[in-house]
Amino acid sequence: MRIAIFCLASFVLLTMDAIPALPVAEQEEVGEVTIELGCMQDGVHYEIGESYESTCEYCFCGPFSANMTCMGPLCDIPICVNDMVVKTLPGNCCPSCEMP
């Protein structure tokens, strides 16, 4: 019995199916194969379940993707009165009412 590894999209399915062996003359040693589960973001490897936060973003490594999933903040959209305008100031993640 051999272990079969199937890669479908970003899923890896390991099965213990009986795979017929090749005749000895056709068998070839391929060495060890290392499979790293998790996500890559900007050259950094994250384990499944790991996360990080940046200034205006929350990112996590889910079990079904090889890439980090990132979300921005949920911001209320301000309703400005008088001469104020909606702006997102440097260092802030969400917009606010500001003077022009």
From TrEMBL:
Q: Where is the signal peptide?
A: 1-21
* Residue ranges of domain VWFC in the record: 39-98
InterPro entries recorded for this chain? VWF_dom (IPR001007)
Its keywords, alphabetically, are: Signal
Cross-referenced Pfam families: VWC2L_2nd
Q: Which domain of life is it from?
A: Eukaryota
- Protein name, please? VWFC domain-containing protein
